[in-house]
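@channel sequence for tomorrow's demo:
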Amino acid sequence: MIEPVRRKVLVSGLVAFVAVFGIVGCTSRPAWAQTGSAVALDVLNEPIPGTDRIMLVQGDPVEVYFEVEPARTSPSDQIQLRRVDDGDLVSHAVRGEAPSGTVSLSTVPENALGWLEVSYVLQPSGDVLATSEEKVLVVAEAPPEPPELVVVPSPEAPTIQAGIAAVADGGTVMIGEGVYEILQPIFVVDKNITIEGAGSSRGAGPGEDSVTLLSAPVPTEIVDAELAIGIINYIGGGGELRDLDLSGGDACVVGRGLEGSGTALAIEDVCMSNTARAVLWKAPAELSVVDANIENCIWNGIVVAPGSFISLWGITFSDVHMQDVENIGYLVMDSNAYFEDLFVSGCKSGGIVLYRSLFGVVDCHLMGNGLAGIAAYSSAGVITDNAIWLTTPIPTGPNEEAYGDPVAAWICPLITMSGNSVNFNSRAAVVSFGSVVEMDSNLMAANGFDMQVEDVPAWAFGAEPSQYMKGHLKDLGGNLCGSSFPPTEPCLAQSTGLAPPEPTAPIE
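structure tokens (generated this afternoon):
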């Protein structure tokens, strides 16, 4: 027999439950829970995958590990299996001489059906010394295997949430064409599934394709990221989300960890609009967004903030069209992020903003964004073959009139720029605040001025306030600047002593 994991239990038999956004699940049991008793009980039967519930078919035995302090208990003591609702005895086994071991309790009697619990009972007094934390559900026959495919709506799954509950882990919930009013948020908890609609409106003309739209009320205010609830919420879950439209809510999609866990999510061919945030991803897991449209966000477009410094989980965005965002388009913190073939326009506080991250931005078009096309804080990355045009200062707010630079780097150890077209922007084509920026073969025309380099205080790295980070712009050749388009002149770097806004963490 496999050596059991040993857990002591509360004498009172306390069972704790936790509610996660309205979805009820069991807390994980501690390795030991000591209350002064000399007895440990542990049900060894395996729980249903993905849950803490132990379910057996009538006739299957309940395997129990016990450990006692011999001086305080008797070899004639019993380990009993009883019904939870009325306390009726189902079966028992005598502990025997050994201070620890395993016993098998029968579920053959007719009264075994239902919820059962295991107790250690002193003999001959009948006093209960300890009760196991685990409860066991005994059923007359094994439940059917959950289906791999569930169609919504259908008699078996009239709602999307019902379909998610019914489908097997790794299966698919297929949502039919039409508009679904989402009055209660949808949850995928500790499960890896595909949610697939009949189609999205991305690239579709009127009447051309079937569309599945999940529509929640349009937000009127911005809710803090820790309180935000999405139309679809992944809590320790993931899988694929594709071929549908999402509209409204604190966010269209929210991802969080469940007790530190997280499952990768791929979003493909999805349109997200009229929301506070399109995606709020705070799960310790990979995220990819491919072939998507995002527009009309009253706060940020996509937020990635898993909460650990330079997470190992990869974040990928490819072929995403984003426009009309009131704050930041892509806000990425503490992650490895790759951006490719994006169109980002009308994001008032920055197209792509990165904090403490490793990144690559390749073949993207960033047009008409405020603050900066790309702003990096304490990050390192590569910016290659992008078009960054018409960047303007922030129009309103605490940092009003700040920047207007297509690329701004704030205390970054190294950023490499190659083959970019950076034209018609309000201020410097590239600005380095205490950063190292290497450049080659970039065309930078009709900007306010060419390049700016500034030294800044190094307090962000814990250094003395009197110490400064030196800004560097390294011209590796092939860079052209000037007031005409295309540019024809060598680029000039200058320093004006301009201080950037302090890099306070933005509201997610």
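heads up for whoever presents: The chain has a mean pLDDT of 85.
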